[in-house]
Amino acid sequence: MNHNLLPYFWKKIALGIFVLTITIWFINAANPDLIDLNAFKVSWSLKMGLLISLLLFVASKEKTETQRYSRLRLDSLFGAMIAGGIYLIVEFVMEILFQGESAARTGGYKLMMIMLVLYALSFYIKKKKFSRIQN
Length: 135
What we know:
Layout: H1 9-30, H2 39-58, H3 67-99, H4 108-134
Helix pairs in contact: 1-2, 2-4, 3-4
């Protein structure tokens, strides 16, 4: 099965972006006047840094990509999509019930973050179980 995944070194780039984003976030939280920019723009820039790092991380190959890992990726992606759909439905119902006509829609950022984190966690938990079974 041929997948168009990024080479493994992109995981290291993703980790670097993640560490840089978290570092800037902590510095900005400790001293908001240090980064003298619009707080809204800084906040969304940091959120996009996190999203980009997660996207690069989950779209990169493992050091040794096998057919089994491809199957684990597919299973994890399917589970993340199901969880994302359930999240959207539950949030929609809760907002309609408790907020009525003033209900707000879920942002794409929040949904993407939830799905990417669930995918990454699910894949790496399954990968660890698979490697323990083989050893």
